[in-house]
Amino acid sequence: MLCPVCDTEMIILEFNMIEIDFCTLCGGVWLDEGELELLLSPENGNCAAVSGIISDLKKCTVTGGARKCPVCRKKMVPVELSTKPPVEIDKCPRNHGLWFDKGELEQVMASSGANGRISDFLKSVFRNK
What we know:
Layout: E1 11-15, E2 18-22, E3 29-32, H1 35-39, H2 51-58, E4 77-81, E5 87-91, E6 97-100, H3 104-111, H4 117-126
Antiparallel strand pairs: 1-2, 2-3, 3-6, 4-5, 5-6
């Protein structure tokens, strides 16, 4: 899969059967539809309150941004998540997935109260990227 920012091939990282597409050049992360919810789920050692984040994703506008979805190539929609501080990510208009620029996924995880193995995994993988 090609990075929507760099247009280079991303690598696939796996955590508990969840595939995380990672760009080694820009540090961005692509999550397929439903993977953010899986990362934030109690099954992955999190006690996060994700309802606000999920509702933000469902309320997004229809105006496209500049980046294209790596799956369908449609312009993605910028979505501001109500995290502290707010994080703006890109969402495929056809719900193929979400794009996080470098550091944004970690911000979302931390703001949502996520803890446990997934947070440790993300910190170890993205520490030097």
